[in-house]
TrEMBL record, chain B:
This is ABC3 transporter permease C-terminal domain-containing protein. It is a multi-pass membrane protein. InterPro entries: ABC-4_Integral_Memb_Prot (IPR052536), ABC3_permease_C (IPR003838), ABC_permease_BceB-typ (IPR027022). GO terms for cellular component: plasma membrane. Keywords: Cell membrane, Membrane, Transmembrane, Transmembrane helix. It holds the Pfam family FtsX. Residues 63-182 form the ABC3 transporter permease C-terminal domain. The chain crosses the membrane at residues 17-34, 62-81, 102-135, 155-176, 197-223, 235-265, 286-307, 554-576, 610-632, 644-665.
């Protein structure tokens, strides 16, 4: 943890590190003229390389829409999203798949592993699609699996694994290409607390050991407390954020709870 | 409310499984169209009409047989769809619907699908049958005399009954499915399906190898033994059949594991693009559908063999009829007692009032038989075999080569055909033979100076080759095949009793006049000779060719009918399996797309999956039928014609069109399913 802080302060010394993700004045509206829904309302946020950020918000706050836009699965109505120096709305449809594969990694709530493939094959998918040589694939897959502690399930099929193992296999699949940004959508949503803890510790460790940048959407305060920074989103914009600083995880958890309580109070007052 | 639900479900079914619906419609249409055969005769010449009503009766029987097969496949397809709908049926019950009400919904659905497909099918069938009338007319070499739009109540009723029974059976199966399963299983059935069942590798390889060996041995046995000619070979043939069937199933059971193992070891291939995914998808499907793949391979085998051999037999029969009719007409008589009561045929014909000289030129052939051939000694072919050391060609083991005609009679026939006369020296014979299969074998004997004993004389061959031109056919007949006839000096031939006497006629005037002059001769001659003749026949070119077209017409219709129904049934099952696979795997395709897989790769994988699912059983079926066809071809060409392959090509082309059409349609629809899955945003993200 200290090493992480050092590297952070080191990069600070050279000025602000180049942001991996920069979201500027992004809006997204649904529906026609009569009943327009503003899912995103001019949202701004920046995530630097090596950060581990949580995105929290109640249902309908726009966090899923934002994630879809960042993931290049959906397009914003206005505003720009810069990912690793590229404006994602400028990427042609034909290049979009390549871009997703090279720059992004995904972890979903339901692991979305392919049933017919073993863990090893599931993890290797982004590499085989990218035509990485077979020998290289083997090494990369084992490295990713080791960093998530799932070497022993590599030759099992999804139905032979526990929910937690499946989720960590999915995480390994997201990491194996060393993407600029890992997007995790409620990764602990379908897990019991023990497996959720295991997965979050894994994410925390790969964030530190491999320097992976992770953006995690969650509504679980415990999950958020593993992150270095928490963005609270409401009505389509960021309404506040918390930095963990040197707090212990427990202390950070208390602070998050306070914000959530205040948010709830505001809702109640309305 | 229940009706509304059923109606909605049917519309969904029609949309998602249009191929299934299409097959029902095609099935109904073909059943109806082919069963209008009897009524088609009303529009054609009288004698063709009679023939057609006989053909129609045979096709009726065939329809029942095909209905059973089609019914079996449709019930399978229906059960397959039901299995996929378990969750939906469970949901109805969770929402408080009673089992009885769910049954009503299912029954209504089946009824609606049946009604719609039956209605559309009959409409299509009525149209097809109008076209078929003209095809029939062409096939029977006649014209439609008074065309008017027609509808066959008989064909309609037969189709209605067949499909009615099929739909009732489907309904019963639906009810049984619903009764047997528990609610919890219904609701969790989707999860159960995710489980991959993979066989152990060594077992897979052993199974595949065993399957291949069984099939190979069966092929070898079939090629060695041919089709059973008599009862003693029946048992061996059944063993061969069982071996090929078992081999096919065992092969498919082991294939998935073997294939995966093989490809996994091709690292450069396996770990690139979506090859890994495609392999696993196919392997998992082959695993769960090994049984149906085996059944489909065998049915395709049946369909292809029926279509191609049917066509080839027709071609051969047509060619044979043409080759077998060098004369305008042949009058033949077999005396009951050739020794005590010989018959002078020309005189008998004159006696019943036909003046042959007025009809045209004619020649008489008196046919005797080499005594040794009659007395059950070693046959001529066996003795040739002993002399040359060659084995008798297959199918000719029991052929009789021992007919004898005199040189004068033979030269008279040659003169009738406008050919040069042949001559013989003392102690020599000539041999007539025009069957390609046996000619080289017999020529081998002639080269070695094969001798034959006729009466007191032992004769040697005058030539080293047989005479195989038109004069080798001594009388008009539908086959035109003569395995061997000896031509000997007149005095030798006269010493033997005449077993058959033939008068060949070449008309002087037009065919119609000649035919008219000989009309009724067969009956009159038969009445006049009475007990003196064992068999009296009058064959004209016209009558022989007409008999031929009846047979070939019937065979063509049966071949196309059987082939078509079987092929659409198989293709429909494959299509339904592929479409449900595509929709089952929609989530996987979406995940692939989100992982950054291009649509080109995704659709490439889909194309490979659909193509392999169609090609795999086809390849096995084709391999079986190539083996069977080669044996059939050998058998057919035994009659002297080896151009049977032309007809087979036509059959295969027809087959490829139907099967390929289903393949293309299935891919288009699967493509649609996957595209919508890939392009729809995941709501949960």
């Amino acid at each position: 943890m200290a090493r992480h802080m050092d590297s952070d302060s080191a990069s600070m010394a050279h000025g602000a590190p180049a942001p991996v993700l920069e979201v500027r004045d992004v809006t997204k509206t649904y529906g026609g003229h009569s009943a327009t829904t503003h899912a995103l309302n001019g949202i701004n946020l920046t995530i630097a390389a090596g950060e581990f950020v949580a995105l929290m918000g109640p249902s309908g706050s726009g966090k899923s829409t934002l994630l879809n836009c960042i993931a290049t699965i959906d397009a914003p109505t206005s505003g720009t999203i810069m990912l690793a120096g590229t404006n994602v709305s400028r990427i042609s449809r034909s290049r979009l798949a390549d871009f997703r594969r090279e720059k992004l990694g995904f972890i979903f709530q339901d692991s979305n592993l392919l049933d017919s493939l073993t863990a090893r094959e599931n993890i290797s998918l982004p590499l085989t699609i990218g035509r990485v040589p077979a020998a290289q694939i083997e090494a990369d897959v084992v490295a990713a699996a080791t960093s998530l502690g799932i070497e022993e399930v590599l030759d099992k099929y999804p139905y032979q694994m526990s929910g937690g193992q499946r989720q960590r296999v999915a995480a390994a699949r997201a990491l194996v290409t060393n993407p600029e940004l890992v997007l995790a959508d409620e990764p602990t949503g379908a897990l019991d607390s023990k497996n959720a803890k295991l997965l979050l510790e894994s994410l925390e460790s790969i964030n530190q050991s491999r320097g992976a940048t992770v953006l995690m959407v969650t509504h679980d305060e415990t999950a958020a407390s593993y992150c270095r920074r928490v963005l609270f989103i409401r009505d389509g914009r960021v309404f506040t954020e918390l930095d963990r600083g040197s707090d212990s995880r427990h202390a950070f958890f208390e602070r998050i709870m306070q914000v959530v309580a205040v948010q709830g109070g505001v809702d109640d007052a309305r | 409310m229940l009706a509304k639900l059923a109606f909605g479900n049917m519309r969904k079914l029609l949309h998602d499984y249009a191929v299934y619906f299409l097959t029902l419609v095609l099935g109904v249409a073909v059943f109806y169209a082919f069963n209008t055969m009897s009524i088609q005769g009303d529009f054609l010449r009288g004698d063709v009409g009679e023939t057609l009503s006989q053909v129609g009766q045979i096709l009726d029987g065939l329809t029942v047989f095909l209905a059973v097969i089609l019914g079996f496949l449709m019930v399978y397809a229906n059960n397959f769809l039901m299995r996929r709908r378990k969750k939906e049926l469970g949901l109805y019950q969770v929402l408080g619907m009673r089992t009885g009400q769910v049954n009503v919904v299912l029954a209504l659905e089946t009824l609606l699908v049946a009604a719609v497909s039956f209605g559309v099918g009959i409409a299509l069938g009525v149209l097809v049958s109008q076209v078929l009338l003209f095809v029939t007319a062409r096939m029977f070499a006649t014209t439609v005399q008074h065309f008017s739009f027609f509808f066959s109540t008989d064909a309609f009723m037969l189709t209605l009954v067949c499909f009615g029974v099929i739909f009732v059976v489907m309904m019963l199966f639906n009810w049984i499915t619903l009764r047997r399963v528990r609610l919890i299983d219904l609701m969790s059935s989707a999860r159960q399906n995710e489980k991959q069942f993979v066989r152990r590798l060594p077992l897979s390889i052993v199974l595949t190898a065993a399957g291949l060996v069984l099939m190979g041995v069966a092929y070898w046995r079939l090629i060695r033994d041919g089709f059973p000619m008599d009862n003693s070979m029946q048992g061996g043939f059944i063993i061969t059949t069982v071996m090929v069937a078992v081999g096919t199933f065992v092969f498919f059971y082991g294939l998935a594991g073997t294939l995966t193992a093989l490809l996994t070891h091709m690292r450069g291939f396996y770990w690139r693009d979506l090859h890994m995914f495609t392999t696993r998808q196919i392997a998992s499907r082959v695993n769960t559908t090994a049984l149906s793949m085996g059944v489909i391979a065998l049915i395709l085998f049946l369909a292809m063999t029926a279509m191609t051999t049917g066509m080839s037999i027709c071609n051969t029969l047509n060619a044979m009829a043409e080759k077998g009719t060098p004369y305008s007409a042949s009058i033949s008589v077999l005396p009951t007692d050739p020794v005590a009561d010989p018959i002078d045929l020309e005189a008998e014909v004159a006696k019943v009032g036909v003046d042959l000289s007025a009809v045209g030129s004619h020649a008489t052939v008196r046919i005797a038989v080499v005594p040794s051939e009659l007395e059950g000694d070693t046959s001529t072919l066996q003795r040739i075999s002993e002399l040359t050391g060659e084995t008798i060609p297959k199918g000719f083991e029991h052929a009789m080569v021992g007919e004898v005609v005199s040189l004068s009679d033979f030269n008279a026939v040659r003169a009738l055909l406008g050919m040069e006369p042949v001559s013989l020296d003392e102690g020599q014979y000539l041999l007539l033979c025009n069957m390609d299969q046996v000619e080289p074998f017999v020529n081998g004997g002639l080269e070695k100076g094969f001798s034959v004993t006729v009466g007191a004389a032992t004769l040697t061959p005058a030539r080293t080759t047989v005479i195989d031109d038109a004069s080798a056919v001594l009388q008009d007949n539908g086959l035109g095949a003569n395995p061997g006839t000896f031509v000997v000096a007149d005095d030798l031939a006269a010493s033997l009793p005449t077993y058959q006497q033939v008068v060949d006629v070449m008309y002087a005037g037009p065919t119609e006049e000649g035919d008219a002059a000989l009309k009724g001769l067969e009956e009159r001659l038969g009445d006049s000779l009475g007990e003196r003749s064992a068999l009296t026949t009058v064959d004209t070119v016209t009558s022989v060719l007409a008999d031929g077209t009846t047979t070939t017409g019937l065979i063509s219709y049966m071949a196309i009918y059987i082939g078509f129904v079987l092929v659409i049934a198989c293709a429909a099952i494959l299509a339904i399996q592929q479409l449900s696979n595509a929709s089952d795997s929609a989530g996987s395709y979406r995940t692939l797309s989100e992982l950054g897989c291009s649509e080109r790769l995704i659709f490439g994988s889909l194309r490979a999956q659909v193509a392999i699912a169609f090609v795999l059983p086809l390849a096995v079926g084709l391999s079986h039928s190539l083996c069977a066809i080669s044996v059939v071809n050998e058998l057919v060409s035994a009659f002297g014609y080896s151009d049977a392959l032309d007809g087979m090509t036509l059959g295969l082309v027809l087959f490829a069109l139907v099967y390929g059409g289903y393949l293309a349609l299935t891919y288009r629809m699967a493509h649609g399913i996957v595209r919508s899955a890939v392009r729809t945003t995941r709501r949960a993200l």
